[in-house]
Amino acid sequence: MERLEPVIFNDAWGSHVSIASLMGRSIPSALPESELWMGAHEAGPSGLRDREGETLQGLIAADPQGTLGDRNIERFGSRLPFLLKVLAPGKAISIQAHPTSEQAQQLRSGDKARAAGADEVYVDDWAKPELLVAIAPFEVFVGLRDHAEIVTFIERLAVPRLTQLLTRTADAPDPVHALLAAVLATPEDDVRSLARELVAAAVRVEGVDDELGDAASAIVRIAEEHPDDIGLVVLALMHHRVLQPGEFIDVAAGVLHSYVRGLGIEVLANSDNVVRAGLTAKPVNVPELLRIVDTAADGVAGRPREVGPGVEVFDSASDRFVLHRLSAGVGPLALPGEGARIVFSLRGGATVACAAHQVELGPAESAFVRADDSDAQLVSGEAYVVAAP
């Protein structure tokens, strides 16, 4: 086992309070802190706290079989299949979707694709399913509404140009996809006025005490952070939710989503394949987003399911990860899964032990459990454990 030194990211949308508070550092932090990464992704491999200058990525590369295990290598090659994060948006993250592995490979394969810069769109051949667990109230827009729901919301907003787009696309084979495409095709010179008309309408609607009123209110708040952005119009086509602590949402490939604000634990496939549709200063790739978005797919929300004394699982459709929460109040608990695992102590502390080694974890600390630490147990405390299914 190895104690990990996580990587902190400082995106402008991050919080000056959340991650620093979890880690026991002074607040506010000097820079916004958006994400805390625990894993071996090339863009931010965790350090090894007890091996100065070494990283988890290097540890795995030096001994794939001992760290990952035969089954992981057979299924995923010499790559850790998952990445664990603490996610702390202080303002809305870009509207985005992730491809399936087939879609990523299709774009990246062949000389013509490489010449066209496909590697700048997708950096690997993997899908990027993800699961978000709220550890504080967490506001999200996830999944496109069905056409009838969109009609109801647009009629309430009563923005003439948006109503015209709705009418123009109503008879398309997939009217939701056609409407999304029409919104994203708004001429650049018209984006500001359409966004402002939408926000003004949302101000009028946000006083209504129902789900659409809540969604309108969220759009108004996000407009303060991302003024005159076409993404504000896209949000009107999406489901709005607030996850309460302990609730989660499972987001598969093709699901359009934007995480608005809150604090959560996110586990995802070890990939950085993302296509954005708005609420960002980063590149927006509308044609590719329209190719991969699944208008019928939605995030699947739920609560953890008890699978044994002191053991809960967060159900996911992903084949790259499974997340458990363990509480050792009933006695030592074997860590679920096989092969490589990451153990994360959110609050309080936890003790993880195997025959050869024991580590103590404080708040917001984590450890990598090697495949050959097959007898690892949570001896005390509470911890989240991610492994391959």
Beta-strand content bin:
25-35%
> Sheet with the most strands?
11 strands, antiparallel
Question: Low-confidence runs (pLDDT<50, min 5 residues)?
Answer: none
> How widely separated are the two ends?
20 Å
What is the residue-averaged pLDDT? Answer: 94
The best one-word shape is elongated
C-alpha-based Rg, rounded: 22 Å
By DSSP (H or I, 4+ residues per run), the number of helices equals: 14
Counting helices, strands and paired strands, the structural category is alpha+beta
* Share of helix, binned: 25-40%
Find the count of extended strands (DSSP E, 2+ residues): 23
Descriptive key words:
389 residues; alpha+beta; eleven-stranded antiparallel sheet; seven-stranded antiparallel sheet; 14 helices; 23 strands; 28% strand
Question: Which helices and strands appear, and what pairs or packs with what?
Answer:
Blueprint (H helix, E strand, L loop, with lengths): L1 E4 L1 E3 L8 H5 L12 E4 L8 E2 L7 H7 L1 H5 L1 H7 L5 E6 L7 E3 L3 H8 L2 H5 L2 H4 L8 E5 L3 E7 L2 H11 L2 H10 L5 H10 L3 H18 L5 H15 L5 H5 L2 E6 L4 E4 L5 E5 L2 E6 L5 E4 L7 H7 L7 E3 L2 E4 L2 E4 L7 E6 L5 E2 L6 E5 L4 E4 L4 E4 L3 E5 L7 E11 L2
Antiparallel strand pairs: 1-4, 1-22, 2-3, 3-5, 5-12, 6-13, 7-10, 7-12, 8-9, 8-11, 10-14, 15-16, 16-17, 17-23, 18-23, 19-22, 19-23, 20-21, 20-23
